[in-house]
Design brief:
By secondary structure, this protein is α+β, with helices and mostly antiparallel strands. It has two domains: 134 residues, SRA-YDG (PUA domain-like), CATH 2.30.280.10; 105 residues, no CATH class. Helices cover 16% and strands 26% of the residues. The strands form four sheets. Strands 1, 2, 3, 4, 5, 6, 7 and 8 form an eight-stranded mixed beta sheet that branches. The protein is elongated.
Length: 293
């Protein structure tokens, strides 16, 4: 979709309302008249509709735990099959998370009564995809969930991707922006990294820089938030930035024997483990469950 637009649409302020999905589509705020996600893996997702279509949705106003597309009964909203992350809209939301693209949120009258319009559909502003994971939903089928957080006014400036490289700025100034990945360097993670002398537990590489070396403390079960992982040594790995990213995004995971597997289930190595460092298997299991392995 060559004219996909990310951000606030000119002439469509927050609070704009329509009686039907067709009217919202014609306004350009959410182009599809049936699917709840507008987006593709290549482009990213530019908008979603929250209107009670999935039983596992949770609307908290400034935070939405949104159920991915697929596998539900259109009449009841109940899941009748597993979802796939490769489904176009789901993959689009992943791309929006990884690229920091804003997502327009449209609420319908059938959603949570505390945050939804009494009738029709309403544009409720821009959100960002902060996280995504897999779990078994209320009806016993595997679903993909996406955490969306409302953007501040500063973050919500219009954004249009350009296929060409930008000209750049010869005199750049400091600015703030939306981050899509946070590396937490806690006292516990620093201790684990010191134990391995910054060697990655997956590839054994040590990234030397002037004056030292670089590694990252990766929490197996993500800290706090919706995942509630603890900050303890048994829940931390010492990884290089590449393998940290792969691990955080489900590109690699650990087996019960601490073999390192890729997302296709192929063994690509074995986790190195120091005698003083126990790896909590409950956290390993939680990480696998998050990504549906």
């Amino acid at each position: 979709m060559a004219d996909r637009f990310f951000g606030e649409l000119p002439g469509v302020p927050v609070g704009s309302a329509w009686e039907t999905r067709l009217e919202a589509s014609r306004a350009g705020v959410h182009r599809p008249t049936v699917p709840g996600i507008s987006g593709t893996k290549v482009d990213g997702a530019d908008s979603i509709v929250v209107s009670g279509g999935y039983e596992d949705d949770e609307d908290r106003g400034d935070e939405i735990i949104y159920t991915g597309a697929g596998g539900n009964h259109p009449g009841t909203g109940k899941q009748i099959a597993d979802q796939s992350i490769d489904q176009s809209g789901n993959a689009g939301l992943v791309t929006s998370q990884n690229q920091g693209l804003p997502v327009r949120v449209i609420r319908g009258a059938k959603g949570d009564a505390d945050y939804s319009p009494a009738t029709g559909y309403r544009y409720d502003g821009l959100y960002r995809v902060a996280d995504h994971w897999s779990e078994v939903g209320k009806s016993g089928y595997r679903i993909w969930r996406f955490q969306l957080l409302r953007l501040s006014e500063q973050e919500a400036a219009p954004y249009v991707p350009d296929v060409n490289l930008p000209a750049g700025n010869l005199n750049p100034k400091k600015s703030t922006g939306v981050t899509t990945r946070i590396v937490r360097d806690t006292k516990v993670s620093r201790g684990v990294k010191k134990l391995y002398n910054d060697h990655c537990q997956v590839c054994d590489e040590r990234l030397a820089i002037p004056g030292g070396s670089v590694s990252e403390g990766a929490h197996i079960q993500a800290l706090g938030g919706v995942h509630q992982g603890p900050d303890v040594p048994e829940n931390v790995l010492c990884l290089c930035p590449n393998h940290h990213t792969l691990f955080d995004e489900g590109g690699i995971y650990l087996g019960d024997d601490l073999a390192v597997l890729n997302y296709e289930g192929q063994t690509v190595g074995v986790l190195t483990r120091h005698p003083k460092h126990a790896v909590g298997m409950e956290y390993v299991k939680s990480h696998r469950e998050r990504w549906g392995y």
